[in-house]
């Protein structure tokens, strides 16, 4: 594997026979994913099927380096940058990842042998609707730059279902529609359902008088939403280092209230799921401040405590709320 990594990192990209052998390996990987991951025969596959198979073949190459980067960071006890941002405009990752890995022409050759145009697949990939402007693009550039410089970093953001909005112009007027970038899934992400945190909203604070005379306060949220992690590997130039962008998705702690459903209150029964949509629906400047800050903060404390040992601060900021339901650190390790 090390020899292969060395070839990919070569800035010239002109190692003898590298392109031919890489093209053959990539062709095999694309066909394997088309058959065994997507479940399609090449004669029945759509252009989107080919895109997903191609993206997964590229992702496989990234994952190898991701594992190595994560293990190396822990083995060397390196300091880590934690980058929290409401927006990460990472763009379309297919060509960007191929370019950073030095595999663009090899993949073009592999797909051409299958009568598939790489540039056409490039157009099919949706733009990740994770921001709306310069700050989001700057955050994405910082993540890629840190990977290029082999700086251990972990990004935290929100996995918006519908981004800002989809724009169309009709009769000289702008019309807005929900962005559907996740309609067919995201081949670059890794769901981490085992890494989830309960986020409380509203409610009241109960005053508790202890027998020793001390006064304690207990917060009782009126609503709770679960933040669930999705990891996207961010590869640097020539694949020398890969960092993690962790995006948080919201889900209802109790998706259906069966008591309300059995009473015939069908709309009320699904209200928790509707509240979940308020958290990660169309991107707006409400900024979802509490949810987007609490889950990353709890994750950072947990990761720090696992690395620093027993003398580090507690990993849980609360026993019931904004605390990990299950232990989860760097899932890529």
Q: How would you describe what is shown here?
A:
With 333 residues, this protein is an alpha/beta fold. It folds into two domains: 1-76 and 106-126, no CATH class; 79-91 and 127-333, Glycogen Phosphorylase B (Rossmann fold), CATH 3.40.50.2000. The protein is 41% helix and 20% strand. It is built from eleven helices and nine strands. The strands form three sheets. Strands 1-2-9-8-5 form a five-stranded mixed sheet, sandwiched between helices. A hairpin with a 2-residue loop joins strand 3 and strand 4 (173-177). Helix 2 packs across helix 3 (47-75) and helix 2 crosses helix 5. The protein is globular. The chain starts with a helix and ends in a 25-residue tail after the last helix.
Report the total helices: 11
**What is the CATH architecture descriptor of the largest domain?**
3-Layer(aba) Sandwich
Query: What number of domains?
Result: 2
Low-pLDDT regions? 1-16, 284-292, 305-333
Give the biggest sheet: 5 strands, mixed
The total beta strand count reads: 9
Helix content: 40-55%
Distance between the termini: 17 Å
Compact description:
With 333 residues, the protein is an alpha/beta fold. It has 11 helices and 9 strands.
Can you tag this structure with a few keywords?
333 residues; Rossmann fold; five-stranded mixed β-sheet; two-stranded antiparallel ribbon; 11 helices; 41% helix; globular
Compile the SSE list and pairings.
Blueprint: H1 2-9, H2 18-36, H3 47-75, E1 81-84, H4 93-101, H5 104-112, H6 118-124, H7 134-148, E2 153-158, E3 166-170, E4 173-177, E5 190-201, E6 204-209, E7 215-220, E8 223-235, E9 242-252, H8 258-262, H9 266-269, H10 271-280, H11 289-308
Parallel strand pairs: 1-2, 2-9
Antiparallel strand pairs: 3-4, 5-8, 6-7, 8-9
């Amino acid at each position: 594997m090390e020899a292969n990594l060395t070839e990919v990192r070569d800035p010239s990209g002109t190692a003898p026979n590298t392109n031919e052998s890489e093209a053959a390996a990539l062709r095999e990987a694309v066909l394997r994913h088309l058959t065994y991951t997507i479940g399609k025969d090449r004669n029945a596959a759509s252009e989107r099927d080919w895109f997903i198979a191609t993206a997964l073949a590229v992702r496989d190459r990234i994952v190898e380096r991701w594992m190595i980067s994560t293990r190396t960071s822990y083995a060397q006890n390196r300091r880590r940058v934690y980058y929290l941002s409401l927006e990460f405009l990472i763009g379309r990752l297919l060509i960007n990842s191929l370019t950073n890995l030095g595999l663009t022409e090899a993949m073009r050759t592999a797909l051409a042998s299958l009568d598939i145009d790489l540039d056409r697949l490039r157009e099919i990939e949706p733009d990740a609707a994770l921001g709306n402007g310069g700050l989001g693009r700057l955050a994405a550039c910082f993540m890629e730059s840190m990977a290029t410089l082999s700086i251990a970093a972990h990004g935290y953001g929100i996995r918006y279902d519908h981004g800002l909005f989809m724009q169309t112009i009709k009769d000289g007027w702008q019309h807005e529609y929900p962005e559907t970038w996740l309609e067919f899934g995201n081949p670059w992400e890794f769901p981490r359902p085992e890494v989830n945190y309960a986020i409380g909203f509203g409610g009241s604070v109960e005053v508790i008088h202890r027998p020793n005379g001390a006064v304690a306060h207990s917060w009782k949220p009126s609503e709770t939403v679960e933040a669930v992690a999705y990891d996207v590997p961010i590869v640097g130039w020539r694949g020398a280092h890969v960092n993690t962008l962790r995006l948080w998705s919201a889900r209802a702690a109790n998706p259906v209230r069966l008591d309300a459903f059995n009473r015939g209150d069908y709309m009320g029964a699904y209200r928790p799921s509707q509240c979940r949509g308020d958290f990660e629906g169309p991107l707006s400047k409400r900024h979802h401040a509490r949810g987007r800050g609490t889950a990353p903060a709890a994750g950072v404390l947990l990761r720090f405590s696992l690395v620093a040992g027993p003398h580090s601060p507690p990993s849980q900021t609360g026993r019931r709320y904004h605390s990990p339901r299950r232990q989860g650190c760097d899932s890529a390790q």
